[in-house]
């Protein structure tokens, strides 16, 4: 035991400085540094009172209590630093402002450089006019976010119009004035301009109307017109009184902003006849005509050759000496399976494909009467021909008993009566006809009305 005590005193005598240093250690740093923090010197963690270090913050960080990105701090005797050597992320909190009408974040803190949309309340405006704020080291920019909105000076004048009431020299934010146009002028936009943050908003223009022109006897106005004034942008369309005349010039004119028409009035002239025969049509021909020359507005019908179908047409019209109308004959398309027929069917088993001009015959179910038909024809990819199967009528004996009637003729006493069959009824013995529905009734597509006897 004595030997151990002597050894300890010997070691203490050999290392007096290290022992004293351990007693002098006061301040400590966390290594590695926290995110966004850098130290100089970089690799020491223990410091004695009076020793200094430099703390430098990375992008988006700062020393919170100095709000700087770099500073020196000194170790004190109480094991603390003169400035806390930690960099914290720069953030901006939700602004507490009564004049904010809308703030676009969800309540969380925003980082340096983040932007948030916002809207100022009534009678306030964004300081820089933009609808967003940016988080900076100095807080939210712009600062302040909102300012009281500006008023306006006298409202601007407009050509050919005026303010409805006497103008003031100053107007408050959101105050508005009403404009009116002079007689024979029409307003576009408006009628109000509003003072918004020092500026008068809304475009208002007064356009001169166009007078409806007087037209010669040969010309008529085809547009419905009320009164003798037409507004800017509206149109007048003209036609000739005589159908054998044609319009020369612009048949439609527009009212311009200056109150003038876009074009002069058209005129009417006698239309020329077509002295040339109707033009030929490849794989088709015009139906024979008896007129020569052809008059203005005469039409000629064309047909295509067998196995050809027509696109456009089928008429060409003589218009002021020229033939007008586009058409062509091309190989006709075939058809798929023929369409079904309610209460009927095709007479033979249908095919999956048919040629142009092929026909299919239909039949109706027993007691059904065919209307139209009996054929549908494949015409250039479409099945043509209207066919309908008309239902028969049934007269229920219980219904007849309720109406106190019976068949007058034995031949009418049958289960089914076909469409258009006439059935004559009579009252049972001891009953008289009430006259509301006649005793002679016709079956119409499955419906027959029963008379009543009382």
Fill in the keyword field for this structure:
mainly beta, Complement Module, domain 1, four-stranded antiparallel beta sheet, 3 helices, 43 strands, 37% strand
Topology overview:
Layout: H1 2-14, H2 16-24, E1 27-28, E2 37-40, E3 46-47, E4 52-57, E5 61-63, E6 70-74, E7 87-89, E8 91-92, E9 100-103, E10 110-111, E11 115-120, E12 124-126, E13 132-136, E14 139-141, E15 146-148, E16 161-163, E17 176-181, E18 185-189, E19 192-196, E20 199-201, E21 204-208, E22 210-211, E23 219-221, E24 229-230, E25 235-240, E26 245-248, E27 252-254, E28 267-270, E29 284-286, E30 299-304, E31 308-312, E32 315-319, E33 322-324, E34 327-331, E35 344-346, E36 359-364, E37 369-372, E38 375-379, E39 382-384, E40 387-390, H3 397-403, E41 405-407, E42 422-427, E43 440-442
In short:
It is found in: Virion. The protein is built from 3 helices and 43 strands. It is mainly beta.
Q: Would you give an account of this structure?
A:
It holds the Pfam family Sushi. The protein has three helices and 43 strands. The chain is mostly beta strands. The protein folds into seven domains: 21-89, Complement Module, domain 1 (Ribbon); 91-148, Complement Module, domain 1 (Ribbon), CATH 2.10.70; 161-208, Complement Module, domain 1, CATH 2.10.70; 210-270, Complement Module, domain 1, CATH 2.10.70; 284-331, Complement Module, domain 1 (Ribbon); 344-390, Complement Module, domain 1 (Ribbon); 397-442, Complement Module, domain 1 (Ribbon), CATH 2.10.70. The strands form 16 sheets. Strands 9-11-13-14 form a four-stranded antiparallel sheet, with no helix packed on it. A hairpin with a 2-residue loop joins strand 13 and strand 14. The longest helix has 13 residues, at 2-14. It starts with a helix and ends in a 12-residue tail after the last strand. Residues 1-22 have low confidence and may be disordered.
């Amino acid at each position: 035991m004595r030997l151990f005590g002597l050894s300890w005193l010997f070691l203490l005598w050999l290392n007096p400085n290290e022992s004293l240093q351990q007693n002098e250690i006061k301040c400590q740093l966390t290594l590695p540094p926290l995110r966004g923090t850098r130290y100089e010197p970089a690799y020491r963690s223990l410091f004695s009172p009076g020793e200094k270090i430099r703390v430098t913050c990375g992008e988006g960080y700062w020393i919170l209590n100095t709000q700087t990105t770099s500073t020196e701090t000194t170790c004190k005797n109480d094991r603390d630093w003169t400035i806390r050597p930690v960099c914290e992320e720069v953030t901006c909190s939700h602004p507490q402002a009564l004049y904010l009408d809308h703030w676009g974040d969800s309540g969380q803190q925003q980082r340096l450089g983040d932007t948030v949309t916002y809207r100022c309340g009534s009678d306030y405006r964004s300081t820089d006019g933009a609808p967003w704020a940016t988080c900076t080291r100095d807080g939210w920019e712009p600062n302040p976010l909102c300012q009281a909105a500006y008023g306006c000076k006298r409202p601007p004048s407009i050509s050919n119009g005026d303010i409805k009431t006497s103008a003031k020299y100053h107007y408050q934010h959101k105050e508005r004035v009403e404009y009116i146009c002079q007689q024979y002028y029409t307003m576009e936009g408006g009628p109000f301009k509003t003072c918004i943050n020092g500026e008068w908003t809304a475009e208002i223009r007064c356009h001169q109307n166009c007078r409806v022109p007087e037209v010669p006897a040969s010309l008529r106005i085809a547009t419905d017109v009320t009164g003798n004034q037409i507004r800017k942008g509206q149109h007048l369309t003209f036609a000739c009184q005589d159908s054998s005349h044609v319009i020369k010039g612009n048949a439609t004119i527009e009212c311009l902003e200056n109150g003038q028409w876009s074009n002069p009035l058209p005129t009417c002239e006698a239309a020329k006849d077509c002295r040339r025969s109707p033009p030929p049509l490849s794989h088709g021909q015009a139906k024979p005509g008896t007129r020569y020359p052809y008059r203005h507005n005469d039409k000629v019908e064309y047909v295509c050759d067998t196995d050809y179908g027509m696109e456009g047409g089928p008429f060409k019209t003589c218009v002021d000496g020229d033939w007008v109308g586009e058409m062509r004959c091309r190989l006709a398309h075939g058809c798929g399976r023929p369409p079904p027929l309610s209460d009927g069917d095709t007479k033979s088993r249908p095919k999956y494909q048919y040629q142009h001009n092929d026909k299919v015959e239909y039949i109706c179910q027993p007691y059904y009467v065919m209307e139209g038909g009996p054929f549908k024809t494949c015409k250039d990819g479409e099945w043509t021909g209207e066919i309908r199967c008309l239902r028969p009528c049934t007269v229920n004996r219980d219904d007849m008993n309720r109406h106190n009637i019976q068949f007058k003729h034995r031949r009418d006493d049958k289960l089914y009566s076909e469409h258009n069959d006439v059935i004559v009824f009579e009252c049972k013995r001891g009953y008289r006809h009430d006259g509301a529905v006649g005793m002679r009734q016709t079956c119409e597509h499955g419906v027959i009305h029963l008379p009543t006897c009382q």
